[in-house]
């Protein structure tokens, strides 16, 4: 049984230099009653009730989100993400601490928040718009755009309780983005829509980010977090586990999830032996600052697996066999991974893999031995070498190499070892071009 305190949060009128969101010492306790009767007793006589526990859902959270910043909140189920967002939106009251919100908030929280399900979509658009501060005339003006973005057709005039969860989210998202919010809060809700709608929403969120809207984004999709967010807050059992740039936080969070799955200790995995005569690298620091920092130190930003140490060395080599830090466009590259399959591991389901990523961690080129040979490795030698040859078609910029030794027997690869940042490198191009890749494009211009 839950108690549900509700309060409203009044956005403070502050000078533009103040952060969009400032949270200091925020804690939230829920009263969890031993029985419905105890809950009733508490309502009648709060001072005398003993049959409940105080459950701490958030513990001393400090967070500052600058105007225009996009901040992700990641964490396992029950870590406190939704509670934090609800406090920011004013639908829950904090037990301790201060919260300052500077700007108009539009929130797309999990299903159930926002709409009155007995009313039609149209009625809800007007009610929701009004709650978010728009006049009737302003909503009239935007209604056609809201309707077009939501793509729910005739259902606009049906009660919301007849909607599928996807239709509900489409309409809720459409309203949220059309009220000119200065702060947009997006909870897991997007995951409900189909992939085309999700992509459309993400595009719209990116466009809003470009116009300076502050965004708080809760998602389990590390790719979306990395491509969208500047920073990330990792909540663990109501505590801040890590706060920093989105790439580093999601890297550490991924490692944590992997170790939780494996039941392994939470300590960072030791690095593999030195690569090509480099001095032995120290352990990955728990508070690693960001990808650039890791790049400067030539250290993996993320390194874990059930058999760390299986990968003996890995890198990208040019046609002279050198592990360079700069490659030019079109230059032939060899990605080489030297590894020792773990003793007793099944080689017939084993795969070596690499990914060239940008510094936000987005996979740009991925290839695995399993793609071409889904029967693992025949060779019985202790040490094996996988080589992948490809021309460099990456546009000018900084990149990193991730390598892995995987078990592909299940639906999802299981990692014997995963190293994100086995090699950092840059690509140089002769001409300036747009885009991520330098594809060979044949073209003609002719009179029609
Ligand atoms: N009204 C409530 N009364 C008592 N406990 C609550 C209440 N709401 C949430 N909790 C508890 O607080 C903790 C944090 O919940 P919250 O929903 O914020 O987590 P979350 O990180 O959003 O999880 P998920 O990813 O599953 O949505 C959970 O243990 C949850 O059971």
Automatic annotation (TrEMBL):
SUPFAM superfamilies, per the entry: P-loop containing nucleoside triphosphate hydrolases
Official protein name in the record: ABC transporter ATP-binding protein
GO cellular component, one term: membrane
UniProt key word Cell membrane: yes
Record's keyword terms, sorted: ATP-binding, Cell membrane, Membrane, Nucleotide-binding, Transport
Organism annotation: Diaphorobacter aerolatus
SMART domains reported in the protein's UniProt record: AAA (SM00382)
Superkingdom, taxonomy of origin: Bacteria
Homology family: Belongs to the ABC transporter superfamily.
One Gene Ontology molecular-function label: ATP hydrolysis activity
């Amino acid at each position: 049984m839950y108690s549900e305190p509700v309060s409203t949060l009044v956005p403070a009128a502050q000078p533009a230099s103040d952060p969009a969101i400032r949270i200091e010492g925020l804690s939230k306790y829920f009263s969890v009653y031993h029985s419905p009767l105890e809950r009733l007793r508490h309502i009648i006589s709060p001072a005398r009730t003993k049959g409940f526990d105080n459950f701490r859902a958030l513990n001393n959270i400090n967070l500052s989100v600058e105007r225009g910043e996009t901040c992700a909140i990641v964490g396992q189920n029950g870590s406190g993400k939704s509670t934090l967002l609800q406090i920011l939106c004013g639908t829950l009251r904090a037990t301790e601490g201060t919260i300052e919100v500077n700007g108009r908030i539009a929130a797309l929280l999990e299903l159930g928040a926002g709409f009155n399900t007995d009313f039609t979509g149209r009625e809800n658009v007007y009610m929701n718009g009004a709650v978010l501060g728009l006049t009737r005339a302003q909503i009239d003006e935007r209604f056609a755009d809201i309707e077009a973005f939501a793509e729910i057709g005739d259902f606009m005039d049906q009660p919301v309780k007849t909607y599928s969860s996807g239709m509900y989210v489409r309409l809720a998202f459409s309203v949220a983005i059309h009220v000119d919010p200065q702060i947009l809060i997006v909870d897991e809700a997007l995951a409900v829509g189909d992939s085309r709608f999700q992509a459309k929403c993400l595009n719209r969120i990116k466009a809003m980010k470009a116009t300076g809207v502050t965004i708080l984004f809760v998602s389990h999709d590390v790719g979306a977090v990395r491509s969208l967010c500047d920073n990330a807050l990792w909540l663990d059992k109501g505590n801040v586990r890590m706060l920093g740039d989105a790439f580093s936080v999601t890297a550490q969070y991924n490692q944590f999830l992997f170790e939780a799955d494996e039941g392994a200790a939470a300590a960072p995995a030791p690095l593999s032996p030195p690569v090509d005569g480099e001095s032995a690298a120290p352990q990955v620091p728990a508070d690693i600052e960001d990808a650039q920092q890791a790049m400067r130190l030539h250290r993996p930003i993320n390194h874990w697996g059930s058999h760390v140490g299986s990968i003996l060395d890995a890198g990208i080599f040019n046609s002279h066999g050198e592990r360079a830090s700069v490659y030019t466009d079109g230059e032939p590259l060899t990605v080489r991974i030297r590894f020792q399959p773990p003793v007793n591991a099944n080689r017939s389901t084993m795969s070596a893999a690499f990914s060239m990523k940008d510094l936000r961690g987005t996979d740009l080129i991925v290839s695995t031995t399993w793609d071409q040979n889904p029967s693992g490795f025949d060779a019985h030698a202790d040490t094996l070498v996988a080589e992948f040859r490809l021309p460099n078609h990456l546009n000018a910029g900084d990149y990193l190499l991730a390598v892995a030794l995987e078990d592909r027997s299940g639906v999802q690869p299981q990692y014997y070892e995963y190293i994100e940042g086995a090699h950092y490198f840059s690509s140089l191009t002769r001409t300036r071009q747009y885009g991520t890749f330098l594809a060979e494009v044949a073209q003609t211009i002719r009179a029609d």
